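Quarterly update from the structural biology core.
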Amino acid sequence: MQNDEIVLPSDSPCAFGLRAQSTAGGARMLNEAAAERLREMIVHGALAPGARLNERELTALLGVSRTPLREATRMLASEGLVDLLRNRGARVAALNIETVQHTLAVMGALEALAGELACRHASDAAIAEIRATHYEMLAGHARRDLDAYFKHNQAVHLLIIDAAGNPVLSQIYRSLNDQVRRVRYMANLSQTRWDKAIEEHNDIMDALSKRDAVRLKAMLADHLAHKVTVVSQTLAMAAVADSPADKP
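Predicted structure, tokenized:
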């Protein structure tokens, strides 16, 4: 096996068996389930940027045959998470600092607009759902459970986007978010930044509850701007660490 191929232990939290789903939902469901498992592994860093996808190891890990794994790989390639290598399989796509910065900048503008619209149009029930998800996110932070925190954090952002009541905005935002989920996860690997994000989310929730459109719009823009800074620093440090000049 090559050095850049990833092999996860059987007790890894990303090691899920999918065989049981093959009889329940058909080939398409199995492909999508395999894609979601791989997506989680990439987002959470179990499969690092540049790592080759070892079919033998991944089929055993996920409990699927090569066909659904290859379909899942193609799905992730369309999202920019995987690079397909001609006659050489696939690898996890590298992260480009400039592309990430541009993407997060656009998403910050979309979230700011969504916050403004949500203050005007969201129902009380929609805001109550966002608040309940916010509390679930706080619980994940209190337990220092990053995976649980991130799941509910993403849900909060998507619920605010949907509360804006603009389906075009929701579609564009989701497409961009799929491309940068892993760097958003990486931003919280810093305990200082994670704690700061909680403070920001508390303020965001307060502004939304009061339907303060001006305040919420500014907060959501700043929240993504802070993430751009942290992610840029993280990727820059990773690039330096991987530089051949720094290796013996």
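Residues 11 and 61 are 10 Å apart (CA to CA).
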